[in-house]
Write a structure and sequence with these properties.
The chain is an all-alpha fold and 207 residues long. The chain folds into two domains: 54 residues, Arc Repressor Mutant, subunit A, CATH 1.10.10; 148 residues, Orthogonal Bundle (Tetracycline Repressor, domain 2), CATH 1.10.357.10. The protein contains nine helices and no strands. It starts with 9 loop residues before the first helix and ends in a 14-residue tail after the last helix.
């Protein structure tokens, strides 16, 4: 560790600590975000991190919210790029089960476990789950209005879909079934929930 520390403003140091925490979480999950690990990542003494981030529970919660919030923004943009609700829903769900999202999947899975002992994290998780459910319900509602989907309660269906996504992504961490099989299983289930003909969503997957 350097014997001298570059002096930075409070805002700069806070941003640096936040960036380091996010980098650690993406590399090894939320459990890797510890005072000592963040300090090592930044290249400063743990006491300096503690000064600018006095609550590790808050830092972990904020790290989670930043990473999954970025993912939601990315997926919202993906949905907007599609011309129909059916195309948007199929693209979004396939993206969420893509193996390239393994780092965020681990963060989600650990958040439910760690949130049992970290109420700040638990609150962030609930907020993000609500945001994701609202987003999916919006896509479904657009499809219902356009006559593509048939359902009575888009919000309830969105919650059920998220439960399936979370479960299948958890399965992916131990390589149970391959990604294409998990995606087809999910889309076929959603087709039934939205009263669609078989393959309306599955048929939109790349061959």
């Amino acid at each position: 560790m350097p014997s001298t520390v570059t002096r930075r403003s409070a805002a700069e140091r806070t941003a640096q600590i936040s960036s380091a925490a996010q980098s650690l979480a993406r590399e090894a999950g939320l459990s890797a975000v510890t005072l000592r690990a963040v300090a090592t990542e930044v290249g400063v003494a743990p006491a300096l991190v503690a000064h600018y981030a006095p609550s590790m529970d808050t830092l972990v919660g904020d790290t989670f919210a930043a990473i999954v919030g970025d993912e939601l923004s990315e997926v919202e943009e993906l949905a907007r790029s599609r011309s129909t609700a059916s195309d948007a829903l199929a693209a979004v769900l396939a993206s969420l089960l893509d193996e390239g999202r393994a780092e965020v999947t681990l963060i989600w899975v650990q958040s439910w476990s760690l949130g049992g002992r970290n109420e700040t994290l638990a609150a962030r998780v609930r907020e993000q789950m609500d945001a994701w459910r609202t987003f999916l319900a919006g896509v479904i509602d657009v499809g219902r209005g356009a006559g593509e989907f048939r359902c009575d309660d888009p919000l309830a269906i969105a919650g059920q879909i998220l439960g399936m996504v979370d479960g299948l992504n958890a399965h992916s961490l131990v390589a149970w079934q391959d990604a294409s099989e998990r995606t087809r299983l999910l889309l076929r289930s959603v087709e039934a929930m939205l009263d669609l003909e078989p393959d309306v969503l599955v048929g939109r997957l790349p061959v």
